[in-house]
Design a protein that fits this description.
Elements lengths: L6 H15 L4 E5 L2 E6 L5 H35 L2 H12 L3 H18 L3 H4 L3 H10 L4 H17 L5 H11 L7 H24 L4 H5 L18 H18 L2 H5 L3 H10 L8 H6 L10 H18 L4 H14 L1 H9 L2 H7 L7 H10 L7 H14 L3 H15 L6 H15 L7 H10 L3 H27 L3
Antiparallel strand pairs: 1-2
Helix pairs in contact: 2-15, 2-16, 2-17, 2-18, 3-6, 4-7, 4-9, 6-7, 7-9, 7-22, 7-23, 8-21, 9-24, 11-15, 17-23, 19-20, 20-22, 22-24
């Protein structure tokens, strides 16, 4: 695991951020005016306190990955998961490129149309297992699954994860620049497919040379006396339920039916006693489910599958723990990547260095400038890996600097493109670092692999933004 260790990358990134707090003054906007608060450095104790604060506030990401591991541990124990995998591998053995393209398109479209990439990561171990058994390398499996989700995020169309914060903070419709977004998605996805196909042809991994495979969350366990149909039905239903539950229908399409239905059910009472709400407890309506709900559902699916396939309590617990153990490094990294956000949000209360940087760059020119706005977005993406927080901070800053709301549709497209590109390389990208930890691929190896695609994607983004800016 040493050669794949990402702690050094995160540690260096955190140290650089701490160093910058000693150089750049903290600042904040108040009543439409920027106020510098002077140097507000993070001290020696903050080097230890910040990681602890990060774990305390972002442990939900780690819990979700542990639950994913636990689910696959139970599925392996049922003895039917291997049957499903074997059938798919056998079907696509002679046309593995077709499966590769299908996987890229599936993950890209789901990410672009729905978002919620933490949920989509649940599918990664399954598709990665098939890809690895078809003979593709780990880095091809990584880019085909996690990389495709990043492409979908970059070319987000109706993604709830992107559009909800944009509408909430910028009051921008989900249909804003939708034609531009769709065209951009088609171009960038086509480029990505060609890139993956070209690179996959040249790869011969060390594992392939040695004739062995180390497949995460997969253990060959076939029980031919059992049918995989119940597992397929339960997992498909759960996935559909989670997609409905975690997609923000209200802010995306003004659909209130799930919220109203939830309210009606919770208001059922007997003699004035709210029987349903008290029996069930606190539960969010569909469309408002969070990562905590995702974790709970994954645990429930594991228990249902254990019951359906007659696993005893010991086997259920042991298999769940085995899967969770395998995902423990991923869970730790998925939590720790939020350390830069913790550093400036909790460590620099009030003002922060990013606000100072943004104020300086955005005031270089009197009007909106694509270059300076892009730089602000790029820098901000390293600190704010979550698009909701990213949009919140940038909306406060841009609304202070630019009072013309007609500029907002152009600004949000710059934010989306630049944030999406940064997530391909940032040591604070939850999706990227989790993927690297899962496949045991070094950060350096990833950069060496993806840089050519990123340059092309950046150039395409710039061209699209330049054309867009001409119509301001």
């Amino acid at each position: 695991m040493k050669k794949y260790n990402l702690i050094k990358v995160l540690g260096i990134t955190f140290f650089i951020a701490v160093l910058l707090t000693w150089i750049i003054p903290a600042g904040q906007f108040s009543e439409g005016t920027f106020h510098s608060e002077g140097i507000a450095p993070l001290g020696v104790l903050d080097l230890f306190r910040t990681p602890l604060i990060t774990f305390a506030n972002f442990i939900q990401y780690g819990m979700a990955f542990l639950a994913i591991g636990g689910l696959y541990g139970v599925m392996n124990k049922t003895g039917v998961y291997s049957i499903i995998v074997d059938k798919i591998v056998k079907k696509f053995k002679e046309k593995k490129q077709s499966f590769l393209i299908f996987t890229i398109i599936l993950f890209t479209l789901l990410s672009s149309l729905v978002g919620i990439n933490m949920l989509l990561f649940v599918l990664v171990p399954f598709f990665a297992t098939v890809l690895l058994l078809l003979g593709y390398s780990k880095i091809t499996s990584l880019v085909t699954t996690v990389g495709s989700m990043l492409v979908g995020e970059l070319g987000a169309t109706y993604s709830s994860s992107v559009n909800t914060p944009l509408r909430y903070f910028f009051n921008i419709s989900v249909h804003n620049e939708i034609i531009t977004r769709i065209i951009f998605l088609i171009i960038i996805a086509t480029l990505f497919v060609m890139f993956v196909l070209h690179s996959a042809k040249k790869e011969v991994t060390d594992d392939e040379k040695k004739g062995k495979l180390d497949i995460p969350l997969y253990k060959k366990n076939v029980k031919k006396d059992r049918t995989p149909l119940p597992l397929i039905i339960v997992c498909a239903f759960a996935l559909l339920l989670l997609l409905i539950g975690m997609f923000d229908w209200v802010y995306s399409f003004d659909i209130n039916v799930f919220r109203e239905m939830h309210q009606s059910i919770m208001e059922v009472n007997i003699n004035g006693f709210p029987i349903i709400s008290n029996l069930i407890g606190s539960v969010n309506s569909l469309g408002n489910w969070s990562i905590y709900d995702l974790t709970l559902i994954l645990i429930m699916i594991s228990l249902v599958l254990a019951w359906l396939y007659s696993l005893n309590l010991k086997d259920t617990i042991d298999s769940f723990i085995d899967g969770a153990k395998e995902m423990l490094p991923v869970a730790l990294y998925a939590t720790l990547v939020n350390i830069l956000f913790s550093a400036i949000y909790f460590g620099q209360s009030g003002g922060d260095i990013f606000t100072t940087i943004s104020n300086f760059l955005l005031n270089i020119t009197e009007s909106l400038n694509m270059v300076t706005m892009s730089l602000v977005s790029i820098i901000g993406s390293f600190f704010y890996n979550d698009f909701i927080q990213f949009s919140n901070v940038l909306s406060s800053i841009t609304s202070t600097v630019y009072d013309n709301t007609l500029l907002y549709p152009k600004i949000v497209l710059i934010l989306q493109f630049m944030h999406g590109l940064v997530m391909f390389v940032a040591p604070t990208s939850i999706l990227l670092i989790s993927g690297l930890a899962y496949f045991k691929i070094s950060y350096k190896e990833w950069l060496q692999y993806i840089w050519k695609f990123l340059i092309k994607a950046l150039l395409i983004s710039i061209v699209v933004l330049i054309i867009m800016m001409l119509f301001i």
